[in-house]
Amino acid sequence: MHKTHDNIPIIISELAVKALLYEVSATPKPGLVDRANNGAHRDMDFYTFIDSSVGLGQYFSEIVHLILDKYEDRSDPEIYLAPNAFFSDLQALGIEAERKMFKVTNHVNTHKGAIYALGLITCAVSEWLCIHKERPQSPDIFIKEITDRVGVYIQPVLTEQFSKVKEAHTYGEAQYRTLGLTGARGEAASGYMNARKWGLPVIEEALNKGVSLNDALIQALLVLMCHLEDSNVIGRHDYKTLELSQAKAKSVIDAGGVYTASGRHAIQQYDLWCIENYISHGGCADLLAVSLYLKLLSDKFYDKN
Ligand SMILES: CC(C)(COP(=O)(O)OP(=O)(O)OC[C@H]1O[C@@H](n2cnc3c(N)ncnc32)[C@H](O[C@H]2O[C@H](COP(=O)(O)OP(=O)(O)OP(=O)(O)O)[C@@H](O)[C@H]2O)[C@@H]1O)[C@@H](O)C(=O)NCCC(=O)NCCS
Ligand SMILES: Nc1ncnc2[nH]cnc12
What we know:
By secondary structure, the chain is mostly helical. The protein has helices at about 10-25, 45-55, 55-70, 85-105, 110-130, 140-155, 160-165, 170-180, 185-190, 195-210, 215-225, 230-235, 240-255, 260-275, 280-305. α5 crosses α6 (about 140-155).
C-alpha cells in the first residue's frame, strides 16, 4: 500500500464524487444538464445530479474497502488477484448503488453509466495501490495500468453478458442486438480508450493553454461527442441522428470551440439545437467524468504526493 495515504477509502471516494460534481457543473454542455439549463432532459435538473452524486460517496468507499479486505490476506504481495475473487461482490455493490440512485432521484437515471464506469475504475485503482508500494512511475503509466486492468475485468464477460439477455430492456442491450454496439460495457472492455484518447488529453491540453477548468471540460466533451457511439442518442433516435449531431459537434470545434468567440457562440447554438431535437449525449457526459476522475487520481497519486 502506498505509504503516504492512510485514508484511502475517503480520499478515493471524494475524488469520484468530485468528478461527478465537476461534470454536471461544467457549463454550457450541449443537450446535457448543467448550471444553465436541463438540456434535452425533462425529468432531471442540476440539483437531481447533486443529490445523486452525493449519495454515491458511500458506494465508492465500499469498493475500496472491498479490495483492501481481499488483498489483506493475499499470498503474493505483488501479484493481482484473479478478478473472480471479487467481481461478484463488486457487481452487488454496483446494483445496490443503482437502486439507491433511483430512490434518491425518484426513478430517474442520472448516473447508471457513471456508477458502472467510476465503480470499475475505483476498483482498479484500489487494486493498484494494494500492489504498488511506491508512487507511479509516471501519470501516463499509472492511468494505463488502471484502465488496462478494467479491460481485464470486462473483456472476458462482455459477449457473455449480452448473450445471457433474453429480451432487450436497455438501449445498450437493444443496440447490441440490432447494431452490434457494445455501449458502456464496450468502453470498459477497451480500457476506456475513448476517454484516454479524446477526453483526458484534451482537458490537459486546454489547461496547459491557460483556459479555466470549466472550459477545458467543455472542450473535452465536444471532442468526445464527435467520436463516441452514444447509446443515448441512438436509443432516443437512430444512428443517422447520431452522425448528424456528431457533425454539428465537429463544426463547433472547427469554429474554435471554447477558444474563440465564434466557437463559444456555436456551442450555445448547438445546445439549443440539441434541446429542440431532444438529443442528449449522456454517455459522453459519463466519459467526461471518467476522464476527469483519471486526471484527479493521477494528480493525487503521482504529481502531488
Ligand atoms: C453494464 C451497465 C452499464 C448496464 O448497461 P445497459 O445495458 O443499461 O447499458 P447502456 O445502455 O450501454 O448504458 C448504461 C448507461 O451508460 C451510459 N452510456 C450510454 N452510452 C454509452 C457509451 N457509448 N459509453 C459509455 N457510457 C454510455 C448511459 O448513461 C447516460 O444515460 C443516462 C440516461 O439514460 P436513460 O434514462 O436510459 O435515457 P433517456 O433517454 O434520458 O431516457 P428516456 O427519456 O428515453 O426514458 C444519462 O444520465 C447518462 O448517465 C446509460 O444509461 C450497468 O448498469 C450494470 O451492469 N450494472 C449492474 C452493476 C454492475 O455490474 N456493476 C459493475 C461493477 S461497478
Ligand atoms: N450532465 C448530464 N446531463 C445529462 N445526462 C447525464 N449523465 C451524466 N451526466 C449527465
